[in-house]
Automatic annotation (TrEMBL):
Membrane topology category: Multi-pass membrane protein
Transmembrane segments: 35-51, 135-158, 164-192, 204-226, 232-253, 297-322, 334-354, 366-385, 391-412, 424-447, 453-475
Residue runs in coiled coils: none
Any single GO CC term annotated in Swiss-Prot or TrEMBL for this entry: membrane
Organism of origin: Culex pipiens pipiens
Protein name: Adenylate cyclase
Length: 492
């Protein structure tokens, strides 16, 4: 009998034989039994599939419309941009169009950061009282409207001259619904609600594998759908995938906590979201004194997660442009590379979770430090890469990088009591969401400034940031050891 099966038997026995359990605990045990195999993984896989199936295609579409509409160049010449048959004239044109495209992508990144970061500060504390499911549904619905609008704009651009800046408007619905900030808060709060402490890290690892799986499927199918159809169809497929995710959450997922009994109407619950007392309570919870070194550990992990998102979001803003400029890659070549990277990350996750953690009993904080060290090594190799195989070497060496995020959150979930989880995760994701406000302009500026002589310079920034994250997690582990020593001393 494996650990999940033994946990299921234990869970069933507790629910059936212990009537003294409180309602919250009975609810958690029953949900843990129900979600033995899948919790939110199918819906999350579909959402990240939608994101990745359209990501590179979206960048290409912005480049093409900037070329034809903004700069007014010939459509035939613009169509060569980012293809295998790019002529010398198109390569020169690429250098002119790319900085403009980088500005559009930077604005998109800012839209996806500012509003969600503010929303998350209200949504997390609200979800502690009124439930996680409304948060999950609202983020999926917002993303569905965004991809539907992108599909519509792309369709109309084939018939009319539409400036690429209109795509920025399409991302407002997803931002207003909380975006990835509220999504991550809701997802990790939900998993914390329905899993026991001993199974939580594994479940968070499985969720991360579902994210990678969605990214992998999106990468593998993106270039083929684009080749067989067009960009409009790619965005339509993304919107359809999110719609299926909405139905999954609506029909299958149960609420994980008991809604607040004093506010039954949906109107009252909606008004409660905008109470500033919730934000005050959030900051009080995150900054209040805690036993031993809990507060220090929490903030070290939050700092590491926030800094890592700074590097990841900043890199994501310009990375495909870098590959196009440095190695002349097309969407097809990038898709194969991205698929390889994601596949290796899934393998790395399994090695980290079941090889290192299960067999060797390594702590979550050390696993997170290993993940951040892999990120640092990968970006260091990218910075000096001058052949495509160097990039493949980087992703092979750094295959365990994907464990950094879920293990960092697992550390937080074990350090704070359950009633504080929503508030802590809200502030964490808000900080993570705000980092692109700084990283997107910084990386865009660095890329544009170094484009003529060293387009890979931004990778040095990322490598340095991830090394800093590694140091923070090592410090967190040292404080955990001191925390245990203090606890043992007080018991004796």
């Amino acid at each position: 009998m494996d650990s999940s099966e033994s946990g299921l038997v234990e869970c069933s026995a507790q629910v059936e034989s212990n009537p003294s359990l409180n309602t919250t605990e009975r609810n958690r045990l029953e949900l843990e039994r129900k979600y033995r195999w899948f919790i939110l993984e199918p819906a999350i896989l579909l959402l990240f599939y939608a994101w990745n199936v359209s990501s590179a295609v979206f960048t290409n579409q912005v480049v093409y419309q900037a070329c034809t509409v903004t700069f007014g160049f010939n459509e035939t010449l613009c169509a060569e941009l980012g293809t295998e048959n790019e002529s010398a004239a198109a390569q020169e044109l690429e250098k002119e169009v790319q900085p403009y495209t980088a500005n559009v992508l930077m604005a998109k990144s800012l839209i996806e950061s500012i509003i969600p970061a503010l929303c998350s500060m209200f949504i997390g504390p609200w979800s502690d009282k009124y439930g996680r499911k409304p948060v999950l549904l609202s983020t999926f619905i917002g993303s569905f409207f965004t991809y539907s609008l992108v599909t519509t704009i792309c369709f109309l651009s084939g018939r009319y001259q539409i400036d690429p800046w209109y795509y920025i408007l399409a991302y407002i619905p997803a931002a207003l619904s909380g975006g990835n900030c509220a999504l991550i808060t809701g997802v990790f709060c939900y998993i914390t609600d329905v899993t026991s402490e001993q199974n939580r890290a594994v479940k968070m690892g499985v969720l991360e594998a579902a994210i990678f799986g969605g990214l992998l499927l999106g990468t593998l199918s993106s270039s083929y759908i684009l080749r067989w159809t067009n960009a409009t169809t790619v965005f339509g497929v993304a919107a359809t995938g999110i719609l299926v995710g909405i139905l999954y959450i609506k029909l299958y997922i149960e609420e994980s906590i008991r809604p607040h009994e004093l506010m039954d109407s949906s109107t009252s619950r909606l008004r409660e979201i905008f109470r500033f007392e919730l934000v005050a309570d959030l900051f009080h919870t995150c900054f209040k004194r805690r036993p031993n070194f809990d507060r220090v550990i929490i903030w070290l992990v939050i700092a590491a997660l926030g800094a890592s998102i700074f590097a990841l979001e900043g890199t994501g803003t310009v990375y495909f442009l870098f590959l196009r400029e440095r190695f002349g890659w097309t969407v097809k070549e990038f898709s194969f590379y991205d698929a390889t990277a994601i596949t290796l990350m899934i393998v790395g996750n399994l090695v980290g979770m079941y090889g290192i953690k299960k067999l060797l009993g390594v702590s979550e904080s050390i696993l997170a430090a290993i993940g951040f060290s892999c990120y640092a090594i990968e970006n260091g190799i990218r910075a000096v890469a001058y052949e495509p195989w160097h990039l493949y070497l980087a992703i092979a060496i750094s295959m365990m990088k994907g464990i950094a995020g879920p293990m960092g959150r697992a550390v937080i979930s074990k350090t704070v009591p359950p009633n504080d989880i929503g508030k802590i995760f809200s502030l964490t994701t808000s900080i993570e969401s705000l980092t692109p406000l700084l990283s997107a302009p910084v990386y865009t500026y660095v890329y544009r400034a170094t484009l003529p002589w060293y387009p890979g310079a931004f990778n040095i920034i990322s490598a340095t940031v991830f090394f800093g994250c590694l140091c923070l997690m090592v410090l967190a582990r040292l404080f955990e050891g001191m925390q245990q020593a203090t606890t043992y001393t007080s018991i004796n």
